[in-house]
């Protein structure tokens, strides 16, 4: 038996296993290949009887238009690159998921590009970014290097940046300064005087902005304030910084954490190693109100960035840029809301 045939001896294996083609639809409908193309092209002219035959054949075969190929031929793309370093970690994971939902609802095709941390990973990500001819690129907070953004801009990609500042790009930013000042004031007004803030040595723009704003506000209030940092903006970073803070003779009575993962690490150290109570001995405020923040083990008072709101603002800026490529850079600012739970009640 010929290897190119399946068991019925009639259907070629490649046809059975591959995608249904427009040519197959044309054969079944008894029309030309161009009639199939016109049927699935918005605004194209095709006789009603021909359209009906084509649609009936397409439904019977399970045919779908190859949008990717059509975009290549038209030198257009519905791909939108979502670029992040470690997109699986923390708030970035929730934001990437929200962006994907908003983009799909719009009719775009999200493609997640993890820049990695090595030179080899970065080069591979850059090739992927340019090779797919994305319609636009959305850069998440974190640390994709400036070279990545410059490459996107040189190739004419509309560029939306979330959570950091870059020249000649549209921005969506959280109100980090407002939130951090509010945290310092809330601690001080509740009678806390030995304040601390935990950031990280990763030096991402949002983390640095929150740390600096809290330090400045606490000093202006006249409170004692210190800073501690872990290697990264994650749980282990909170553990490391927490141990450093609570090994000191003068221990803080209130700690502001630059994100929720840092806060979780700190809280476990406070309870398990320092043997202090939260919030009676140590009050804690975090940032990024993700579902885990309400877990019974933490009940974290925290500032909420709504990933859905930030995703919608970013896509709105993208659409504005696509409609008017020469418009001046625009910026959206989302002010976080303080969600009160058990780790601190003002």
What is the makeup of the main sheet? Answer: 6 strands, parallel
Can you name the CATH architecture of the largest domain? 3-Layer(aba) Sandwich
Mean of pLDDT: 85
Beta strand %: 15-25%
Overall spatial form:
elongated
Structural class, from secondary structure content? alpha/beta
Q: Give the low-confidence spans.
A: 1-17, 71-75
The amount of helix comes to 40-55%
* CATH H level, superfamily name of the largest domain: Response regulator
**Strand order in space, largest sheet:** 2-1-3-4-5-11
Distance between the termini: 80 Å
- The third-level CATH topology of the largest domain is Rossmann fold
Radius of gyration: 27 Å
Strand runs, count: 12
Order of helices and strands: HHHHHEHEHEHEEHEHEHEHEEHEE
| DSSP helical segment count | 13
The domain count comes to 3
GO molecular function: DNA-binding transcription factor activity; transcription cis-regulatory region binding
Keywords: DNA-binding, Transcription, Transcription regulation
Protein name: Transcriptional regulator
InterPro entries: HTH_LacI, LacI/GalR-like_sensor, Lambda_DNA-bd_dom_sf, Peripla_BP_I
